[in-house]
Amino acid sequence: MDKKGAQSYKEQSINTMTQEELLLLVYDELVMRLHRSRLALDKEDIELFESSVDGCIAIVRYLDDTLDRRYPISSELHRLYDFFGYELNRVKIGRNRKELERISPMLSDLRDTFRTAAKNCAEGK
Fold this sequence. Notes:
It is built from five helices and no strands. The protein has helices at residues 3-15, 19-42, 46-65, 73-94, 97-122. Helix 2 (19-42) packs antiparallel against helix 3 and helix 2 (19-42) packs antiparallel against helix 5 (97-122).
C-alpha cells in the first residue's frame, strides 16, 4: 500500500470512530508514551525521554481542554489532569524515575476505567 493510501485509511478509520473509541485511543497513546519515556530513561536517551514526557503532558492538557464542563465529574477529572500535568513536569525536570513509576499505573488505571465504562455503556448497563 502506498503512503497516500495508508494515510487515507488512517483518516477514514479515525473519522468513523465513536467518541469512546477516540478517547481510548488517546489514552492508549498516553500509556505508550509513558512506557517509551521509561525505556528512554533506562537507555539514558534524554532527548527521547523529554520528547516522550512532553507528549504525555500535551495529551493530559488535551484531555483537560476537551472536558465537557456541564457534567459534575468534569471538575474531578480536571483536578486529576492538573495533578498529572504537575507530576509529569516534575518527572521531566528531575528525570525522576521513581515519580514516573508512581504515576504510570495511575494513568493506566484511569485508561482502564474509561475502557470499562465504554464497554458498560455499549452493553447498556
